[in-house]
């Protein structure tokens, strides 16, 4: 029996509830999933049915979106996050993880959260979903990958100021990032011999030391050492020439040095269909690569494309 994907509701005042229903409309026959949240937060007039257990999702999915009821403290108004619901958002994520750990779901897919509401309402102590999921799993180091049909990118450093990147980017961090990426490509994407391109930190990958010495001093030696150990890794490459079609054909994933270096190319190529994947967890986790979009919540304008891609990817990874 194919296990369903657990979809946590995310911030109920954002676009999560409406795109979940639109995703179900597309995936009802091909990708069974169940939504964990408060039915009061779903748009009116759209078919959903409450289920008692994840195992009921497949049978229900043909005619209605399966919903595992998860009561929240308050109703919601689209575009107006309520800190009173913060604890519900957090516990819905925890429940999704617990169901996967118990073997009742194949993977976790998370709808976007609003960190300020979680901090204001529940003292949320994590920078985002990724770090919270790592804590739930008891894993010290995980990797964020942005994945699509045309490109997969991994930022070695994530949500820190650009001024801190050179001090945070250490040989140990880069080595771990490459190793976790390589293992994830094998286990989650089924790539037997992953090819990983590594971007330089400085313009033109330092241009022989004229624009920075990190590439010469330790990035290139680290890559050479890992290649000698059997990793299919190469670089450092100038970031401005590694994302055109011919360059992308040479690798399965690009490890980049900081947030924007990784996210700008994939959001340019696959803005509506990119997927956020967390590698290094003992379970599969995907998420749409966008935020809560309060400005259009409840207006029927939000595209479900990224969530559809995230659910499909979670299904495929879970099966693998």
Automatic annotation (TrEMBL):
One of its GO terms (molecular function) is 4-hydroxythreonine-4-phosphate dehydrogenase activity. Keywords: Cobalt, Cytoplasm, Magnesium, Metal-binding, NAD, NADP, Oxidoreductase, Pyridoxine biosynthesis, Zinc. Binds 1 divalent metal cation per subunit. Can use ions such as Zn(2+), Mg(2+) or Co(2+). Pathway: Cofactor biosynthesis; pyridoxine 5'-phosphate biosynthesis; pyridoxine 5'-phosphate from D-erythrose 4-phosphate: step 4/5. It catalyses: 4-(phosphooxy)-L-threonine + NAD(+) = 3-amino-2-oxopropyl phosphate + CO2 + NADH. It comes from the Bacteria. Its EC number is 1.1.1.262. Substrate binds at residues 129-130, 267, 276, 285. Gene3D superfamilies: Isopropylmalate Dehydrogenase. Belongs to the PdxA family. Homodimer. The active site is located at the dimer interface. This is 4-hydroxythreonine-4-phosphate dehydrogenase. It comes from Seohaeicola nanhaiensis.
């Amino acid at each position: 029996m194919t296990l369903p994907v657990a979809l946590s509701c995310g911030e109920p005042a954002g676009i999560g509830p409406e795109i979940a229903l639109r995703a179900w409309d597309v995936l009802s026959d091909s990708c069974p999933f169940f939504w964990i949240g408060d039915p009061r937060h779903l748009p009116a007039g759209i078919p959903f049915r409450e289920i008692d257990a994840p195992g009921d999702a497949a049978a229900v999915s043909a005619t209605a979106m399966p919903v595992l009821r998860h009561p929240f403290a308050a109703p919601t108004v689209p575009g107006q996050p309520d800190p009173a619901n913060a604890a519900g958002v957090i516990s819905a994520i925890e429940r999704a993880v617990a169901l996967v750990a118990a073997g009742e779901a194949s993977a976790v897919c998370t709808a976007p959260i609003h960190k300020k509401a979680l901090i204001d309402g529940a003292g949320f102590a994590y920078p985002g979903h990724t770090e919270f999921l790592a804590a739930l799993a008891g894993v010290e180091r995980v990797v964020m990958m942005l994945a699509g049909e045309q490109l997969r990118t991994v930022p070695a450093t994530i949500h820190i100021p650009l001024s801190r990147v050179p001090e945070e980017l250490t040989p140990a961090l880069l080595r771990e990032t490459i190793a976790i990426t390589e293992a994830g490509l094998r286990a989650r994407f089924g790539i037997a011999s992953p090819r990983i391109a590594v971007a330089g930190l400085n313009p033109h990958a330092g241009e022989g030391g004229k624009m920075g010495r990190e590439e010469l001093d330790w990035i290139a030696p680290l890559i050479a050492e890992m290649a000698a150990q059997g990793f299919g890794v190469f670089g450092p490459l100038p970031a401005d020439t590694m994302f055109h079609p011919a360059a992308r054909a040479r690798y399965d994933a690009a490890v980049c040095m900081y947030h924007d270096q990784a996210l700008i190319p994939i959001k340019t190529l696959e803005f509506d269909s990119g997927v956020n994947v967390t590698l290094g967890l003992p379970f599969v986790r995907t998420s749409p690569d966008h935020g809560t979009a309060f400005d259009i919540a409840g207006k029927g304008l939000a595209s479900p494309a990224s969530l559809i891609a995230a659910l499909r990817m979670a299904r495929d990874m879970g099966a693998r």
